[in-house]
Amino acid sequence: MSLPKAARGQIAKFLKGAAASPYEGVTWEQNVGGVEGKFIFTFTGPAGTPYEGKKFDVNYDLTGGFPNRVPDITFKTKIWHCGVKEDDGTICVAALEPWVPTTGLAACVEHVSGLLNQNDAASMINTVACEEWKANEGAFNAKAKQWAAQYGK
To answer: Of 65, 71, 79, 150, which residue is least crowded by CB atoms under 10 Å?
Structure first.
């Protein structure tokens, strides 16, 4: 099944923008498994965070109605983070709402980069991680760093 023309246009716009101004610490594979609209983005954990230097794979699935709806974005690499569900890697996309078709793929990539840079109780999709972060940030950071070492590349 091929993507709608609007989705292809948004992908082309993203690729053109990324070629002109590359994302630091982000690479991707396009058309994963031969499926148009499926990507795996690899993010390098930012300096000064528990994820520093480790690589995290994130699935972006644009086949379910993009650009009219937010793509499905899930961490393939296990990560301890307030904004990422522990069991299936689903991310909190509240910051991308309200979604409009012109929001685009770049905003989704920047959103995940932002997640890796900081935790935010507003992105409380992993309530256990958020409770730990609010109660004892040091313990949270230690666990996040241990998970990054264990599961990150």
So the answer is: 150
